[in-house]
């Protein structure tokens, strides 16, 4: 039962891998750059997780040591999921042409959200 959470994590990774690569190609990310974008996630985790762990261990909030970081992380994840999901629409509203093969504003929003 303790490791049952791994099912949800693996399901989430499977969805992410199967749906985001075609979405990247839809907004015009070159195929050879897609693998570099996938590297951003583990590399950012390699840097960010120890920093968050350091500050959460020293947190003296009345809500506890971990809860403010969990709430802040959940809020940020909700924002970036919105940015990733609507990157094409945000790109069109900021100047990308609808029929263009490459949408630079949408790619920038997608990479920032990712």
UniProtKB/TrEMBL annotation:
Q: Which residues cross the membrane?
A: 36-56, 68-88
Q: What is its main location?
A: membrane
Q: Per the record, GO CC terms?
A: membrane
Q: Which GO terms describe its molecular function?
A: symporter activity
Q: Does the keyword Translocase apply?
A: no
Please provide the record's keywords in A-Z order.
Membrane, Sugar transport, Symport, Transmembrane, Transmembrane helix, Transport
Give the residue range of the signal peptide.
none
Pfam families attached to this UniProt entry: MFS_2
This protein's pathway: Glycan biosynthesis; sucrose metabolism
Membrane topology, as annotated, equals: Multi-pass membrane protein
Q: Which InterPro entries match?
A: MFS_trans_sf
- Keyword Membrane on this protein? yes
What is the annotated localization of this protein? Membrane
The family line of this record is: Belongs to the major facilitator superfamily. Phosphate:H(+) symporter (TC 2.A.1.9) family.
Family annotation (PANTHER family): SUCROSE TRANSPORT PROTEIN SUC1-RELATED, SUGAR TRANSPORTER
This one is known as MFS transporter superfamily
Q: Which organism is it from?
A: Helianthus annuus
């Amino acid at each position: 039962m303790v490791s049952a959470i791994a099912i949800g994590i693996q399901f989430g990774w499977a969805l992410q891998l199967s749906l985001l690569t075609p979405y990247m190609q839809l907004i015009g990310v070159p195929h050879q750059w897609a693998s570099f974008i996938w590297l951003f996630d583990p590399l950012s985790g390699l840097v960010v997780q120890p920093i968050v762990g350091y500050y959460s261990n020293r947190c003296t909030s009345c809500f506890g040591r971990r809860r403010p970081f969990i709430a802040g992380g959940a809020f940020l994840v909700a924002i970036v999921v919105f940015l990733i999901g609507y990157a094409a629409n945000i790109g069109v509203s900021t100047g990308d042409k609808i029929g263009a093969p490459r949408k630079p504003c949408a790619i920038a929003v997608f990479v920032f959200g990712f």
